[in-house]
Amino acid sequence: MPAESFSSVTVHTKANVYFDGRVVSHTVVLASGEKKTLGLIYAGEYHFGTGAPERMEIVAGECTVVLDGQTEIQSYPVGTHFDVPGNSGFTIAVGAGICEYICSFLS
Fold first, then answer.
1. Domain range enclosing 62
2. 3 lies in a domain?
3. Predicted confidence pLDDT, tens digits, the chain (107 residues)
4. Domains: count for the chain
């Protein structure tokens, strides 16, 4: 189950804004130095590239995802996650409402 809160963090106040404000996140850095982003995805379809491997945890709403190099559409409701390899990407779609996520950068 995704975390509901994080203690002892540094929050970057400047938002990461993508697709004309349809996807917005803020970066948090845990006391351990681990970096995460917490964000919102409004209805629509968006493609993201990755540098480092990522884990996307869905904390509200739902989405569908197609990883680069694959054709199968996977559904992700609240409480689920998907992993994206480094130097890759994914297409994420939200049918209605807002999908909220926590993105963890994996090593």
1. 9-105
2. no
3. 567 778 889 999 999 999 999 999 999 999 999 999 999 999 999 999 999 999 999 999 999 999 999 999 999 999 999 999 999 999 999 999 999 999 999 87
4. 1
Decide: 86 and 52 in contact? Cβ < 8 Å.
yes
Look at strands 16-18 and 54-60 and give their pairing.
unpaired
The string over 93-105, giving b where at least 16 C-beta atoms fall within 10 Å of a residue's C-beta and e elsewhere, is: bbeeeebbbbbbb
CA dist list (Å): 62 to 18, 43, 77, 80, 97 = 19, 10, 4, 9, 9
Domain assignment of residue 49, yes or no: yes
Q: What is the CATH number of the domain that holds 89?
A: 2.60.120.10
Whether the predicted model's global pTM rises above the 0.85 cut: yes
